[in-house]
Every structure is written in structure tokens, then in C-alpha cells.
Amino acid sequence: MAVLNTEIADTFSRIADLLDIRGENPYRVRAYRSAARTIGGLSENVSDMVESGENLTSLPGIGKDLAEKARTIVRTGALPQLEKLREEGGDGLIEMMHLPGVGPKKVKALHNKLDISSIEELEHAAREQRLRILDGFGEKTERAILGAIARRKTTNQRAKLPVARQAAEQIVRYLKKQKGLEKIAVAGSFRRQVETVGDLDILATCSRADALMERFVSFEDVEKIIAKGTTKSSIWLRSGLQVDLRIVPKQGYGAALHYFTGSKAHNIATRKIAAKKKMKMNEYGVYKGNERVAGRTEKEVYAKLGLRYIEPELREDTGEIDAARKGQLPVLVDIEQIRGDLHAHSEDSDGKHTIEEMARAAREKGYEYLAITDHSKRVRVAHGLDAQRLQEQWKVIEMVNKQLKGTTVLRGIEVDVLEDGTLDLPKRLLHDLDIVVAAVHSKFRLSSAKQTERIVRAMGSGTVSILAHPTGRLIGERWPYECDMERIVKSARDEGCALELNAHPDRLDLAPRYCRMAKEFGVNIAVSTDAHSTSDLAYMTYGIGQARRGWLEAGDVLNTRGIDELMRSIEKT
Ligand code: DGT
Ligand code: CA
Ligand code: CA
What we know:
The protein is of the alpha/beta class. 44% of the residues lie in helices and 14% in strands.
């Protein structure tokens, strides 16, 4: 049951389309198409047939080869042949076929006659009015295609976490008012705290399923109802975000939560373990023969597989399963363990609030410390501080610290790393600060060698406590700059420098795999919000989400330490 007939049919018809476009044997193409039709129209479930050992070749148009492929899809959720076609350029072709009004026939013509293999190329050619020379294409088609691409851009963008979080919280609160609702959770990439979310996947158990569905599609922010059914419905919100609601049986809630939390790679890996243990596993439960042996909770599901419970943020099939089997999973850092924020701005540079306002906001969060790290002079657009203005800030900080009980304001700076790796303020001055955060804000296009050298030199100055947003990416806007991360991590270790995990939802920089690399080399991570206002201090939650995705434990995170231990950790000699 895990794999639906429509998924198998879709896989086959995609292969048919791609083979057709590549001009391969028409007989093979037809065979895939007819198999897709057969399976798509079947009343029995192919997954069930496979599991009960039925012979698929009894189905019309399914020979030995296609039967084997269907079995592979049922067992693994994917077909290597399609993956290969996609890697060989098929992904772009498939995306084009998904545009309304553009089917396999048109894509074939575009690809073979104009050598167009991606949406970007298609858009470009349509703009240049190069499509109209093809049979069946005209001015109108060109306009329609450009329109479809434009709409796709506005609706198909992945949502950043604050948008996803707000929608998730509102909808859950709204659905909870339904009588008969028992359990509800947001699964999918959101639960795994992936840095951007394609859509929200909500799961619920409810004794009044019809009423809950009705309520769901009547949510006030609905732009369009995509589908409404008895167990699954999908809506589009005005923000462009798609939300799916699935109502599942109570006894299978844990299995469904596991299945729809994903990731797909994690699911495939867990299903393999079940198969090895002569069990099967799907969104309804774990089965031995026809008997359900687990399904009510996720813990129970993992236990049947011989695994410890795996936190959602780790479920990417990047080693968590092995660790769970051996009882070596990390105890992930929790937001409750955070004792301060080490990167924040005041109105002295480009922040919105005064140092005192920022400090009071930090105290309200129960923080022991807050580092004020305004920009240095080179960053003129941010009204960066020179030596004199920085020293004036110290007097203010001293006063605030005298008045404020419980929270210490640390004297810091976000000092600009210049192109040659020197710092924007004199060493003497930097030595007098409590904390120095160094950051690259310019010359993102240096060669990898030069960029790495620049950063390594900055860390080697003997003054830097933390390297801010180490790869410089802005999600959806700017790629990370080229650099040798391993060398930077090693140099951080040698210099006793920490790396920042910038919690701003537009940055979320350091990415999880580099957090893991840092941990491996014993380099501390500072999870910092880069707050430019008091409310930005709340970004900490996104940073912690990424830290958890990066397998970090409290001991790896600098700002879980109390102030004395913190100061000892960042002390420069
Ligand atoms: P997203 O929405 O693109 O940010 O990513 P996800 O992970 O939320 O993916 P989504 O919404 O397509 O599906 C939710 C979960 O359902 C996914 O993480 C794993 C599971 N799932 C979806 N499709 C498949 C599939 O074809 N095979 C398997 N094994 N699991 C799937
Ligand atoms: Ca999703
Ligand atoms: Ca989904």
C-alpha cells in the first residue's frame, strides 16, 4: 500500500515521455504507455499484489521486464531507470511538460528542433519569438507559455520558514476547534525543519472526518481549493503555499506521521530494514504477514525495526539509521538550553532599537547575555562604527549593565573582513572588546583559493571569536561564495575560533553538513540571530532547527554555556 498505483503509472508514463523525446524505439515507448494505462486503471492495488506474491505478468500489456520494474517501484519507492533519465537532462524536460498547455509532443518538438531542455531556455526562446517557426506553435502559444512560466514562478517558490510557520500555526489552531479532533501534527519538510518548505503536510485523526475536511477547505486564507476528498484535501493559500490535510485512522497515526514526515530517502531506508526483518511497512503500520505489529506511535514503529526513536531533523538518510541501531544518536541541542545571543545590532549601525531596548528584550527571554555587534566603518550603508563611535558605545553598555539585573550586555563588533583578509578596525581596539564577530560583506566573487585565504587570514589575526555567516548565502537570492570549507573549519580549530550558525531565516548559514564537519573537528558553533530589532531575537528557533539538522548537541553550541564558561571559551591570548 505504500506505493500507489498512480505513482507506478506516473513513473512509467514519464519514462515513455522521456524515451519518446529522445527518439528511442517507438515499440518500447508504446509498451511503457500501455503499462501505465493498465496500472492506472486497475482496481486492485499493485503493491498488495506484489506483497502477496501474485504474478503481475497476468495483467494485460505487462511483460516480465515491466513486472520486475513495477516490483522495484513497490519495494523502493523509485525506479533507477527514471532517476538516470532525469539525471541525463530529463528533469528539465519533465518540468516543461508540467507547464499547462505543454505536453510531451510539444516538448519533443522543442527539444529536437530547437535544442531546448529546460524552462529557462524555453522562456528565453519564447521571449525572442523563436518558437513560432515550429509546427503547431504560434504567437499565441508563445504568450501562453510565457504566462505559464510567470505563474509558475509566483506559485512554485518554496516558502521560507517564517511564512510556513505562521501558516502552520494558524491552520492547526483553526482545525483544533473542530469537535472530534484528536491528534494533529504538521509533518513533511516543515517538521524536519528544512530551510525552505515546498508545501505543508498536515495529519489528523478525527471522529468527524467530513466536518474536519469541510472546515479545512473553508479556512479564511484559501485562495483556491485544489482537491477535496474524504481522507485527503489540498488547498492553496493566498501566500502561494500549498497545504495538504490527510485524515488517518488512529491505530495507524504513528506510521502515517512517520511516512509523511519523510524524508523520502529516510522512508526508503526504513522500509528496507522492515523487508530484511520479513515485515512490511507503509503509511498504515508495520506488518508481519497480515498482522499489524506497530503503527500507533512513531516510537513503536522504530522499535519494531530495532531502532531508537529518531528525531525528525535527522531523518535524511545521512547516517541516522546506523546511529539509531547502535544507540549512538546525538542528544540534539534544544532551544531551552540557549543562554544568550552573540550577534545583534543596535540603532548605532543598522538596527532599529537602542542597546538598552535590545538588552531588555534579551532579559525578557531569560538570556544571561547579549552581545551588541554593530557593523564596522567599512559597511557604510549600515552606518558602520569607527573606533571613536565604538568606544562611545562602551560607555552606554556600561550604564545599561549597571541598571539591568540578570542579563549582561557584551561589548562586541561585527568587524568587516577586507578583501585581503585584514580587519576593518585596529587590533588593539578589537583586543579590548568582549567578543569579535568577523564577517565578509563584499567581494563575493573571489576565486575559491582567494576567498579561503582571505577568511583564514582574518581568523588568524588573533582577535576573532566567531566567523559570522560563514558561506554568505542568502536563501533564494545569493549562492554561497566559493571557498574551501574544510580548510576554514580546520583553521577555526587551530585558531580557537567558533563558527556562527546565523539563525536569520533568509540566511540559515552554516548549512547542516558543515555543522557536522565543524563538530567532527571540535569547532564550536554559535547559534546567533543577527537581530536588527527586538523581535528578531525570536529567529533563534530557526537557528536551533538547523543546528539540530546538523546533529549538534548542547556541548557543541557556544551559547548554551553560562557567561563565565563562555568568556573562557572565547578568550584570546
Ligand atoms: P517539500 O514539501 O518539497 O518541502 O518536501 P517534503 O519532504 O515535505 O515532501 P512532500 O510534501 O512531497 O511529501 C511529504 C512526505 O511524504 C515526504 O517527506 C516523504 C513522503 N513521501 C512523499 N512521496 C513519497 C514517495 O514517493 N515515496 C516515499 N517513500 N515517501 C514519499
Ligand atoms: Ca511537504
Ligand atoms: Ca505534500
